[in-house]
């Protein structure tokens, strides 16, 4: 059994701030907990746009608070997101995430992130067991 608290986790290296300055994320559960997933509370800052393309991960994202939109780049569709909505990147969808108000999102990744990943230029995280510096 493992119990963690969001505010306590934010005082540790579980809180990661993006190089882009557009989001932060608290990794409440990572791969080393032993499940085949990781769980994050991510804040997307108001007035920002973030390019994301998780080529190697499945992700489901539930909006707790704040409003924004996702644009899927393959078809140019805009998906407004509000509290209570979930979006699921079942096609490894390349997308732009824009927040009108700061969005608080609960995110589940499969396979789980290890915590060492950084967002690469192409918007992805490396697959597990691969040199993180080389985009794949
Ligand atoms: C909204 C979103 O894609 N969040 C992903 C989690 C965050 N980028 C992280 O913890 O790395």
How does this structure look, described?
By secondary structure, the protein is mostly beta strands. It has a domain at 23-110: Jelly Rolls (Sandwich), CATH 2.60.120.10. It contains one helix and ten strands. It has a six-stranded antiparallel beta sheet, with no helix packed on it. Strands 4-9-6-7 form a four-stranded antiparallel beta sheet, with no helix packed on it. The longest helix is centred in the first third of the chain and has 4 residues, at 6-9. It is globular, with a radius of gyration of 14 Å. The termini are far apart. The structure holds (2~{S})-4-acetamido-2-azanyl-butanoic acid. (2~{S})-4-acetamido-2-azanyl-butanoic acid (9YT) binds next to strand 2, strand 3, strand 5 and strand 10.
Provide the descriptors you would attach to this structure in a database record.
136 residues; mainly beta; Jelly Rolls; six-stranded antiparallel beta sheet; four-stranded antiparallel beta sheet; 1 helix; disordered C terminus; binds (2~{S})-4-acetamido-2-azanyl-butanoic acid
Helix-strand blueprint:
Blueprint: H1 6-9, E1 15-17, E2 23-29, E3 38-44, E4 49-52, E5 58-65, E6 68-72, E7 77-81, E8 86-89, E9 95-99, E10 103-110
Antiparallel strand pairs: 1-2, 2-3, 3-10, 4-9, 5-8, 5-10, 6-7, 6-9
Bound molecules: (2~{S})-4-acetamido-2-azanyl-butanoic acid.
Order of helices and strands: HEEEEEEEEEE
Radius of gyration, CA atoms, in whole angstroms: 14 Å
**Helix-and-strand structural type:** mainly beta
* Helical residue percent band: under 10%
CATH fold-level name of the domain at 23-110: Jelly Rolls
What is the level-2 CATH architecture name of the domain at 23-110?
Answer: Sandwich
Strand content: 35-45%
Output the CATH class name of the domain at 23-110: Mainly Beta
Low-confidence segments: 130-136
Bound molecules: (2~{S})-4-acetamido-2-azanyl-butanoic acid
